[in-house]
Please model this.
Amino acid sequence: MLPPGQQLAAPHKWPTVGERAPALGPEPWSLTLEGCVESVCCWTIDQLRAIPQVERVEDIHCVTRWSKLAVPFRGLSLAHLLAEARPLPTARFVSLVARSDRGHSTSLPLQDALELDTLLALEAYGQPLAVEHGGPLRVVVPHRYFYKSLKWLARIELLADDRLGYWEREAGYHNNADPWFEQRFIASRLSRAEVARLIAGRDFSHRELLGIEAAGHDLQQLNARGAQLRNADFRHCNLARARFDGANLSNARLQGANLSKASLYGADVEGVDFSGADLRGADLRRVSLLGATFVGESSAASLSSTDAAAGAGAQLDASTRIDSSAIEQLTPLQADYVRQTLQRR
Ligand SMILES: Nc1nc2c(c(=O)[nH]1)N[C@H]1C(S)=C(S)[C@@H](COP(=O)(O)O)O[C@H]1N2
Ligand SMILES: [Mo]
Model:
C-alpha cells in the first residue's frame, strides 16, 4: 500500500537525497548517547556489530513523493541502546545528529521513536550500507517520511524539550512527518495581505515564500528567480514566460498552470505536480525531477499517450527543453510519457 500522493521509484533504483557523504571526522566511527541519561555511552561500529542484530523489512516514503517498498535492513534497535544508557524521567525527545558539514540532525518524541521501533541500520540488502545511503550507520524510522531517517548517525541526545532538525527548520518540513496523513510541510506563515501584495507586484525573486497560496492568479512573466517556493500552490496560474531560474519549487503544485516559455532552468522541481500544465517552449534544463508528476499514474496506464495529453497529462513538445539525465530520475510511467510527448511538433 502506498500513502497518498506517493509513486513507486523505478525498481532497483534507490535515489540519493540530501547530503551525499558525511563530514570528515575521527576514525573509527563512534556513536555517543548522551543528554537526559543516567550514563553516557559510546560505541564503536565494531561494538555495535557485536550487539544482537535485528532484521526488518521497511517501506521508504520520501517527502518528494517517491516510495520504495520492502527494503531489508539489519542493525540494532534504538530501544536496546537506550536501555543501556537508562533514560532519565525528564527525557521526552530524541535528537539524532549526523556527522555532517551542515550540522544535519532530526528529532522525534521519545515515545514515538520507541513505538515506531526505530532501527539503527548497519546493512541494507545484506550488504554494509553504502556511504551515500548513510553508511556506516543510519537511522530508519518506519512509518515516517524518510527525512526522519538520519544518515551518518554520530550522536543521540535525549532532551527535555524538542530541538527541530535541519529540514524541519530550514525547509519547513512537518515535524511529525506521517505519510498516511501527508504531513509534508507546515502551513504557510504568509498573511493574506502579504500574498496579495506579492501577487500584484509579480516579483518573488530571492524571497522565502514556502507554501504560498497563489492558485488561479495571473502571474504572467513573474520574476521568481532564486525564490524558496517549496509546496507553493500555483494550480491553474498563468505563468507564461515566468522566470523560476534556480528557484526551489520542491513539491509545488503546478497542475493546469500555463508555463509556456517559462524558465525553470536550474530549479529544484522534486515532487512537483505538472499534470495538465502547458510546458511548451519551457526550459527545464539542469533541474532535478525526482518524484515529479507529468501525468496521473492511473490515466497514463489507462490511456494512450495522445489521449493522456488531451486529458490529465502535461503538454510537452519538441520545444520543451529537458535533459535526458533528469528524465531518468522519473518513475518508468512518467519517463515514458515525457519521452513520447517531447517528440511532438
Ligand atoms: N545526514 C543526513 N541525513 C539525511 C538527509 C541529509 O541530507 N543528511 N536527508 C534526508 C532525506 S530528505 C531523505 S529522503 C533520506 C534519503 O536517504 P537516501 O539518500 O539513502 O535515499 O535521508 C534523510 N537523512
Ligand atoms: Mo526526503
